[in-house]
Design a protein that fits this description.
Layout: E1 22-28, E2 46-57, E3 62-69, H1 71-74, H2 78-87, E4 89-91, E5 94-96, E6 103-107, E7 114-118, E8 125-132, H3 137-147, H4 155-163, E9 172-177, E10 180-192, E11 228-229, E12 237-238, E13 245-253, E14 256-266, H5 272-282, E15 298-302, E16 305-313, E17 322-331, E18 334-343, H6 344-360, E19 362-363
Antiparallel strand pairs: 1-9, 2-3, 2-10, 3-8, 4-5, 6-7, 7-8, 9-10, 11-19, 12-13, 13-14, 14-18, 15-16, 16-17, 17-18
Length: 364
Amino acid sequence: MKQFSPLLLVPLLLLTVGCGKQDEIHSYDVPKEAPELGPAHAAAEATPTRMLAAILPGDGQNWFFKMTGAPDQVAPQFANFVEFLKSVTLKAGQPEWKLPADWTQEPGRSMRFATLKVKDTDPPLEMSVIPLPPSDTLENVNRWRGQVGLAPTTEKELTAAADTSAALDHELFTIKAGDKTMTVVSLEGKMGDNPMSRAPFASGMMGGGGMPAPGPASSTPPAAASPIKYETPEGWAPGRSGGMRKAAFNVSADGETGEVTVIDLTRENSPLLDNINRWRGQVKLDPISEAELPANSEKLKVGDLEATYVKLIGPKSEQPQPAILGAIIYRENLAWFVKFTGPAKLAEKEETRFKQFVQSIRFE
C-alpha cells in the first residue's frame, strides 16, 4: 500500500453495521492530500496504524466491523478479513459468520455485539462488531480516514468504489452480497494518542467500553444504566440479546416473523423527533415536523414514566409491507428504545401485546 501523511484528527459526532454469498467485489483507490500538521499538534506522538473496517446495512440498523493495530499485525489478516466478510449473513436481524481458523470469538460487552480476536498476537489484535442505527456511510468512512490521518473522500469517490472493478486492498471498496452491499475500507496512516481516534463510531459513545464521549461539564454525574423488568407476552420467544440490547424477542404468526428489541442510548444524543423520523425513514415514510408529532403519536404510561408511542406502516408498494411499532422512554440520562420491526400484518396482530409489553417495563 502507499505511504500516507498524518493530519489533524477530527472526531466527527453523528448519531448513529445480511447478506448471502458474495457475487462480486469492487474497489477504488481514493486520492489523498497531505495537509500539514498545525503547531499545536506538531509534538503529538502518532503511531503507524492499519485499519480494516466495514459497514453492513441491516434491517433497521447497521453493523460495524473494525480492526485496528500495527501495520505488521493487521496486514497479514487482510485475506482473513475479506473471507470473514464474505461469510456474514443476517438471520432474524442478527449477523452470523464463519470464523477464520486463527480467530476466536468472545461475548459482547456494553455496546459490542461481539469481540473477535486473532490468536497468539501481542499486543492482542481484535475486531469489534457493533450495531447502531443507520447513519451516513460517507460520514463514517471519512471519520475512519480522519482517525488514521487521511484526508476525507467524496460522495463521488464513494459511488465510484461501487461502480468500478479493480484489485482488492485499495483504500475503499465494496463487497456485493445478495441485495446488500458492504462498504469496506483498508487504510494505513498514523493515529495520535487520542481515545476518540480509536472509537469505531461517534454519537456520544465510545467504542468497546460504551462510555460517553467527552462533552460539556455537568454538575450532575451520569446515572448508571438501569436494569429492567418486564412481562413477556405469550408467544414471544427469547431473541439474541447482549451488548446494548437489553432484551430481544422473536415474534411469529401465520408464517410471518418480526423482532422486538429493547435498547438504551444516551439521552442527550437521542432527540425524540429525530429518532421517530429515523424510524419513519426505515419504513419509507416522509419525516414529520415537531408540530405534527402529537397527531402522529400517543402517550403510554410506564410506571411513573411516560413513553411516546408510534405506529408506522410503510407503503403497500413495498413487499412485504414494512412496519415499526416503537416506544421511546426517557429516564434520567438514558433513552430507552422499545421497537417491533416486521411486516405490517404481523404488526397489526401484535400491537396490543406490544403496548402491554411497553407498559409492563419497570426500572430498578
